[in-house]
Each structure stands twice: as structure tokens, then as C-alpha cells.
Amino acid sequence: MPRDLVVDDAVLEILAEQAPLTVVRGPRGYGKTATLNAWLASAPPPHQVVRLTLAREANEAEEFWLALCTALSEAGVVDGEDGDHRARAVRSLVRRAAPLTVVIDDYHHAGRLEAAADIDDELVEAVRQNDQLYLVVASRTTRAIETTGSLSIDVAVVSPRELRLRGSQVAALATRLGVQLNDREADQLATGFAGWPAAIRDVLVRSRGEGGRINLALADDYIASMVRDLRHEQVRAFLLRTAVPESFDAELADLVAPGDSTLTILRNVRSAGLLREEIEGERRVYSYAPIVRQALVRMLAESRPDELREVHRALMSHSLHERDHVHALVHAIHAGAWSTAEQVMEEEWHHLVTQEPAVLMAAAQLIPPDVVAEHPRFQVARDEMDGALKSSRQGRDLIWPTGDIRGLTAELGPTRLRGGMDTTVFALVQWGVAAVLAGDEPSALYAFGRARTLSQERDGESAAVALATLGLAGTHAIYGEVDIAASWLEDESLRRTGDVPPELAEYVDYWQRLIRALIALDRLDPGAAAAVAAMRERPRRDEIWGLEVFVAAVNASTSGDAGDIARWAANVRAARHYLPQGRMAEMVLRATEVEVLLSGGLLDDARHVARNLPVNAVSLSTHAHLALANGEYRQAASRAREALEVVTLSQRSVMECQLVLAGAHHALGERAAARAAFAEAIRTAYASGQRRPLLVLRHSVFTALAAGDARVLDLWPEAYRPTERETAEEPRGGLTELLTPRELEVLQALHQHTGAVPIAEVLGLSVNTVKSHLRSVYHKLGVTNRSGALRRADELDRAGPPGHVGMG
């Protein structure tokens, strides 16, 4: 045995405590023998020790008893010469009067089946009868001596968990062996092998021969040797086949490695420490350590490629049954089941390209070039995904689940077949639509842009070019880039539609009208209402229809008509129930309901709806807007800043948050911060073409922040400017003019707290200071109590253009 091994002191302590029965259990190479050596060399028992190492011949019960009897005889322990080997050995152990420790290494060789159980029972009974006898066995498998033996005698178990090497121990072993290893590499080696001592040492020793630098590729040799040395082919097949899935339960193990003994082998392999076990829900899930799994899979691929494909086919069928389309696709590709792979990609394209683009791209790289050439979606996954991933990598964690776009596919499918649209282009268009619905603007623009380019290169097919151009216009419009969207609508490809089939011409016209209406609203064009009225109604209640509802509701909120606002708030509430829950389109409608109510001055209703509005990338700007309307200026500013950190925020929401910041700072008397935020909002307005977010501010605040700049003042649309009468009626000396910044903070705190004591705690002031500020606030507002102050503050803060809420 090698001397340069590391044995945990805690394990040596367990052995030194000398339980009546001690079991050292672990798979091959887990240092069982080395552990026994270290124990007997460092702190052996103070009495006689008999040590025996079994060989495979001990599978026969008679051979086991002969070996034990011989070892006892050589130690002078055998009692008498009469009887067979079993009787002499058992009698000697039971009658031993002085303390004796018997150490049996490689105990897994002791008997088979019923014979093994009989041997275990005899030894446990001997220990039970003689309190001077101590038995230590080292075994690769769990046996009855450990399980049922613990029912009648005290048993100490050193399991694989105690025998595993940790990162610090791996580093110490590497130092002894002269291998250069930093802490990260030591932890990687320990984790990759799940602490398997002999495997780790084997890699370190081989690496020493290669210059002293760690080489994890050498792990394959040790694992391959271990697998080849297994006695039973069923166990060998089990290890190789169950290593293919990343994890498995008992049912999946039986599927990929079928056989009468599968569950028995699973239990033995787990108890031997080769598998990690976790509880997921109500299932026990097993997995191999990463390096071990990789080595097993490589061995299966090199020595049994047909079996590897067979396992992948079984896993493919299982994944399809579980509706796990990502893994179904991966296994289909590994199995060479190209028709199944194409079917999965056809049916789940919208999900794969938005939720799992990296997996899709990696899987496509495994497909042979001649197969890729026959499948357009394979081509897109292999050649196009990388470009989109690079452009949208920052916001990957903010991508929403997509809706079911099969309806859109059904609409375009017959047209595609009749018009001869290139299938690769069609796949790109589908990708673009799915990306829009998932909130992945960069990928949508990439997909539509590539579809347009390929269409122009491949005979300039007018239908495909028009669809791709509409996709670009719609994406820019939905994400608030108004001027770019308008320029795409003027593209020549949307004027030359003479060759477009009638069904597709209607589709192009539908989208043009919808996009024009959204652009007109964001610009606050005088003809916005007419553009909305010109929209065509979509019969299918899907996420595209949800966009229609959004546009119509926004139009109502800008009209200032109380009846329209109330009606469309109800319409939005009803419409979102038609859409899949938890997706971006449904979340947009939930936020829109709050915005519509705010625009109508229905603050209490807006608060009520917002209670159930989750805080996310879509709703952050709405929550900021609501906090501003509610007079919670610090919270409004905090929400707005939080939203501006989100990389997927639309330009519409970016400008709205910048204006919320400006309004909040202005309300708090923080003039410099208000002007800075306002300047950012104006830059966004010029860059994007957005105007509608300006209505977050009341006109008097807008003009105050514009500071006489005629170019900025012209951004406010004429139709939304207050009349002379409304301007004259607007209260003078607003809150920011009447109160100091600290008095404003005290007034804001008065919304949530009823007295000076809690306000003092919240603001970190003394109670007397708060009382002084309250007296000053009441005096300046001309009131005598809290309710009067809140009512007067609300009056001053609400005055503004008809149909809009004054918010700072």
C-alpha cells in the first residue's frame, strides 16, 4: 500500500474507540485498507490483534472459515482441533477469555447469497456472546453484519462519507506527491471525484509523471480500470448506462439499464458511495460525481457506441413523455433520431429559441453537416443563434416564458406553402415573434434582420421581406423606439406588395395599422385617436390581441374622457384573463390597468389593483409612477432608480422612470437632482421619439424644469397644454414652494404615521424636532390637524390638466 496517503483523524478516532463491531465500508479505492494500516500503525489496540485479508476464494463459505481458522491458529487463538473449520473458529471466538480484536479486510468476499448471510449471523452472534471480542471488517458492499447486526450489538460504521477526501486533504496529498495544485484545483478534484481517494491519488501520481501539473484527463484510466475489474456484467452495464443522464431515479434507472437486478444494483452502488442521493419532492434522485460521470460516458461511447445510442433513445422517449422538450431534443440528436429532433424543433421552436438558446446552439453543433443541410431549423440553430446570444447576453435572466405561437404559425403556414417562402426565413420570422413575446428585444431584431437579409439575397421574395420588415417595425414600436419604428413602416418593401398572397396581404395590413396606432400614441400625434379607430380587430384572443387591447386602453387614458377611462380599465382587467398567466403580455395588461386608473385620477382604485401587481421588469415603472402619484416621493425615486438598472427596460419605461425621478426630486425641493433627471428624460425623448411619458408630470412642473428652453417646451403637445382658465385656477405656491425639504419629508411620513413619535423613529429625528416641523407645516397649509394637512396637500398636488393626475 502507498505510504503517502491522507487519513482523516476523525476516522482513526472511530476505530480507536473500539466498538464491539466496526464496519469500514466503501467502494474500491476508498482507502479502506490504508485506513486500517494507519490505525494499526498509529494507535493499535492494547491487546492481541488478528488480521486477515480475504481473497475471491472466500466466496465459498468453507474457504472463508478455513482462512479465518488458519489466521486464528497462527495467532495461537484456536480452541482445540476437533470439528470443522467453522465450528473451531466460532468456538475459539466465543470462548476467548482475553481481549481480542479480529480485523477482516476485503470482507465483501466472505460468502455468497445465503452463505454470506450465515457468515454474518455467526460472527455477530460470537461478538454478542463474548464481550472480550472486537470485530473490525472492511467491505465494499452493505451486508447483513452491518444492518441486522446493529439490532443486537453496538456497531460503528465508517462510511464513504467519512472516507472521502476534502479539498484541503487533496491539497496536502498533492504536496506530498510533488504536484503543483492550488486550492481551486484541489476543490475541483475533490468535487469531481466526490472525494474518491484512490482515484484522486492516481490522477496526482500520473500528473507527477507529466511535469507536476494536474491533468484531469488521466481520470479516465482509473475509472476504466475499475469498470473492467467488476465481476458482474450487469453491474458494469448499470454503471455505464446510468451515467448518461445527469441524474436519475429508480424508474429511470430501470428504463436505461433494464434487468431483474437493477434495483438491487442501484441499492448496492449507492451504499458503496459511488452515487450521490438527493430528495427532490417525493423522489430519490441519484447522480455520479462530475469527473466519474464523464469518464463513464466516454468509456461507453468508445467501447459500446450502439448501447450509447440505445440509452439516448430511451431517454428521448422518456423526455417526450414528460414533455421535457429540451432534453428530448438533446437525446434525439445523440441518438441520431433526426425526424424526432425536427418534430420537437417544429413544435417547440418558440420555447427553444427564447428559453434555451445556448442548449439549442450546442445541440446543433453535434449534428452532422449533411443532416443540417436537410433541416432549415438545424441550420438556424447552428449558424444564427450565436449572434443573437452575444447581443442579448446581459438580459438572459430577464427573458419571459413565451406564449403559444402555434396560432401565428397556422396563419402563416398555408401562405408560406402557397407563396413558396423559404423555410429558413420562416423559422427566423417565428423566432423573431417568439423573442418579442419573451421580452428579448435584441434577439427579435437579430432574427427579423436576418430573415430580411436572407429573403433579399434569395430572389427578393416580397412576402418574406414584408414580414421581416414588419417584424422590425413592430419590435421597435413595442419597445418604445418610435422614430426607428416609423422609418421601417416607410420602407419600400411594404409598398411593393403586389406579389403578396391575399391572406398575407391582410396580415401585413393588420400589423401596419396596429403599429401606426402605437407610434401615434407614443408621439401624442393629433391623429392618434383616428389611427386607433382604424385598427382591425383580431378574432383570436391571444397575446397579439392583448397588444390591441393595450393600444386601445392607452388611447383612452390619453383622451381624458372619464367614461372611456373607466370602461377601458374594466376591459383591460377582463382581457388579461384570456392570456396565459405569468407571461409578459399578461403582465403588461396588469400594469396598464394601473396606468389607466392613474390617468383618470382614480388613485384609490389604482392602489387596490397594484397590491396584486408583482414587482418585475415590466411593472417597476408603474410602481414608481404610483408611488409618485401617492406622494411617496422617496419610494418613487427608489423604484425609478431600481427600474433604470434593468437592461431590458423599454425606452417608454426608461423615459417614464426618468420623469418620475425628476418629479420626485422636484417635490422634495431637490432642484439639482430634478434638473439632472429631467435632462436625461429629454435626451431619451429626442433619441426615441417618445412624448407620451411627459404626461407623468403636470404641465406647470414640466415648464418649471424646462427653465424657458423653447426647444424643450415644444416637446409638450399642444393638445395637452392647459387652457388659460385652467392655468389661472391652478393653486399657487405648491408644496415645494411652501415647504422646506425636511418639512416635505415630515408631511410625507404623515401619510403612514399618526403622531410625532413614530415619525421621529422613521426619520431619525427627535420628537420635539418633529413637533416643531409639524407646527410649521400646519401653519403654512392653513390647517390645524393631520387630516386637514393631508387633504390640503392632496389638493395642491392634484391640480393639473384635465384627465391627468398631478404628481409632483
Describe this structure in words.
This protein has 808 residues and is mostly helical. Among the domains are: 9-162, Rossmann fold; 167-228, Helicase, Ruva Protein, domain 3 (Orthogonal Bundle), CATH 1.10.8.60; 384-525; 537-610. Residues 728-732 and 799-808 have low confidence and may be disordered. The protein contains 45 helices and 7 strands. The N and C termini lie far apart (81 Å). Helix 34 (620-629) runs antiparallel to helix 35 and helix 34 (620-629) runs parallel beside helix 36. The protein has a 5-stranded parallel β-sheet, sandwiched between helices. The chain has a two-stranded antiparallel ribbon with strand order 6-7. The protein is elongated.
Q: How far apart lie the N and C ends?
A: 81 Å
The main β sheet shows up as: 5 strands, parallel
| Global structural class | mainly alpha
The strands making up the biggest β-sheet line up spatially as 2-3-4-1-5
**Please, what is the CATH homologous superfamily of the domain at 9-162?**
P-loop containing nucleotide triphosphate hydrolases
Q: What value does the average pLDDT take?
A: 85
Individual helix count: 45
Q: What is the CATH class of the domain at 9-162?
A: Alpha Beta
Q: Using DSSP, what is the number of strands?
A: 7
Which value, in Å, is the CA radius of gyration? 38 Å
CATH architecture of the domain at 9-162: 3-Layer(aba) Sandwich
Low-confidence stretches: 728-732, 799-808
| Strand residue content | under 5%
Instruction: Summarize the amount of helix as a percent range.
Output: 55-70%
Shape: elongated
In CATH terms, what is the fold-level topology of the domain at 9-162?
A: Rossmann fold
Protein name: LuxR C-terminal-related transcriptional regulator
InterPro entries: AAA_22 (IPR049945), P-loop_NTPase (IPR027417), Sig_transdc_resp-reg_C-effctor (IPR016032), TPR-like_helical_dom_sf (IPR011990), Tscrpt_reg_LuxR_C (IPR000792), WH-like_DNA-bd_sf (IPR036388), WHD_MalT (IPR059106)
